[in-house]
Amino acid sequence: MLIDFPNGDGQYMDEEIIITKAPGSCEMLDDDSRGRVRQQVRSQTYQSAHIKTFENNMNDHVAIGVIFGSKHALGLATMPHRFNVGAFFHITHIWAQLNGLHTVFMFRLQKVNLNEKSWWAPLGSALPPANRDYLKKAPLASCIECQSESPLIYDEGWVCVNHACGAMGRLQGHNSSIPLSFNQDWLNERKRWPTGRMPEQQLAPTFPENINGTTFTTSVAGWKGFICPRCHCCNSRIDWAHQKCIAEGCDYSQKVTHAIQTHLSLLPPHVEEVHGHAIPHNVHRGHVECTKLFLGHWVLLTYKLCENNYVTHFMANRHINGRPGGANDMLLEMQKGDGLGLKRPYMRGQQLTRHYARNFGMPYNYVAAPDSAPFSEAPPAIMTSLNRLTWAGSEAVRGQYYPPRNELLAVGYMESQRMGYHDDGERELDDLVSTWSLGAPAHMEFRIKRSHAHPNLGEESYDPTDEVVMGSDFWQSRQRLNALYRAGHMNAFRLAKREFFDTNRTEIRRLGARNAQVPWCLQLQLSHGDFVVMHGAQIHTSYEHQVIAGGALRYAMTARYVRPHLVDPSERWRGDFTLAPGTQYTGDLDLPIPL
Ligand SMILES: O=C(O)CCC(=O)C(=O)O
Ligand SMILES: [Fe+2]
Predict the structure, then answer these.
(1) Which of 217, 369, 406, 415 is the most exposed place for a label (fewest CB within 10 A)?
(2) Which residue(s) pair with 309 in the sheet?
(3) Whose CA is nearest to atom 2 of ligand 1?
(4) Single Gene Ontology BP term (predicted)?
(5) Which structural domain, as residue segments, surrounds residue 244?
(6) Same domain, 456 and 537
(7) Which among 572, 573, 554 is positioned nearest to 564, based on CA atoms?
């Protein structure tokens, strides 16, 4: 649990006790006196997952690890880092109170280990008492309306804290919600930790020594983060090949050497290399159509997502992958040295992506020029990938001219890493994106973007000139409806519209609900050496894709074309490259096909 409340309103913390609100039901709103602050906008419900989870933890004696953020304003010791390992706590009380008109749930947590002084205690505070009086309690009282009993929590007087009672949160005999100041007797109460033992696991596990060369380095425990052995700051592993402490003034840095993985060591159990043409395990649903083509040793599956928008999956086999400069060699190349200097980029503010990445070639939009290494300095693996990806792209769009790709994004995935739903539709890019998969397998999923899948369908606001995306809610009915409008049959259009809404009202409401998920319509099972080519602008405007990597190590090399006239002229040189004559990749089509 992270305790990081920037305004201390209604919350409390001392050396042993924390009182905090259940998360959720808040939005950032303007406040006259305080500016933009997080405010309660809905009542919380007792049935919500957050509250149930904490209730289960309380009933099942599950200790909760607490991390302190530096943003809390509760007047204890200053927090040395942005995030700080606190201690194990247990929940002693859960109760309801009013926050304006809204019901909120509150938790009181008590430190499990009461024998040791907390490191966040204010300077000069007394040592914890040797003997505790666990029987000393705040007075109890019962509600005159619901008869439920609870302690005197607030200084202002006793209030009912039963969420189901009409008198909840109101001082008995008054009809207003109360100001919040906690009763000292209640704060001083201590509940005996029922198990009598400390939690089994460590809150700040010691990082194993000598991890280099072991598979630990790419495991979740390995990449998630570490506590700096020098200054105790909580750190993520930002660099692919280093553990560096980000705390100001701390220069701790340790090289991480990963165990070398081969295409064979990354094959999932019971899966073997494919000798013949690969057998697809992709799934397409609904409106998506598939065509199949054999090209030498390749199997090409082309999925039509909508008119002029295609995803082509090139499935490789062991003969293609085993060739010099092929996927097997490339996988080893990628693991050399510093692993290409991949880093976990920041998404927004302080949040890191899960995957590691590095851009090469022409910079664009999100990639500040210095963050895109020029091709003239790129390792051979990058140029080999670019060469192959250019072939895959041109093969997928046969007959149409596309310039050679001038930008390459190398992405590395460790255990349980993924790239969540996104599109690659930046303004500077053309509509051809090719990716080469190396190492462990992955799922790649495509779905219609929410705004297109569940367009705002209201009878009054219905706009027959809106674009209808294939596969979106009621797309065929809407296409028929809009055709009547376009043909000028206004009466027929009005009647058909009325019938459409009368028939589908309930379903429209269900699909348009805030939490309605959009399912994927295409799922590709990507194996080592496969290419994926996305062709068409709507794949990025109406659709989005995600990649869920499996196994211990996977790379994706994605080539795009950045339109040079949209790049600062002084930075265009980063995308320049020349291929040595005769080295252009041609798809291994010369490989004999064994009979
Ligand atoms: O991991 C992959 O195969 C694709 C990655 C991707 O979608 C991207 O780099 O934009
Ligand atoms: Fe992408």
Answers:
(1) 369
(2) 306
(3) 556
(4) DNA alkylation repair
(5) 215-250
(6) no
(7) 572
Using the mean position of ligand 1's atoms as its centre, give its distance from the Cα of residue 409 in Å. Answer: 9
- Give the closest residue to 66 by CA, choosing from 130, 122, 120: 120
From ligand 1's centre to the CA of 557, what distance in Å? 8
What's 411's domain CATH number? 2.60.120.590
Query: Helix H segments across 180-326?
Result: 184-188, 220-224, 318-321
Residue identifier of the C-alpha nearest atom 8 of ligand 1: 558
- Do 173 and 316 lie in one domain? The reply is no
Contact 216, 41 (CB under 8 A): no
Which ligand 1 atom is nearest residue 558's CA? 9
Q: 307 with 539: CB under 8 angstroms?
A: no
Q: How far apart are CA 26 and CA 20, in angstroms?
A: 14
Q: What percentage of the chain exceeds 90 in pLDDT?
A: 64
Average pLDDT over residues 157-170: 89
| Element holding 88 (H helix, E strand) | strand 83-99
Grade residue 28 by pLDDT with cuts at 50, 70 and 90. Answer: confident
To test ligand 1's pocket by mutation, which of 414, 547, 548, 554 has the most ligand atoms within 8 angstroms of CB? 547
> Quick one: 16 and 149 in the same domain?
yes
Looking at the fold, whether 437 and 461 belong to one and the same domain comes out as: no
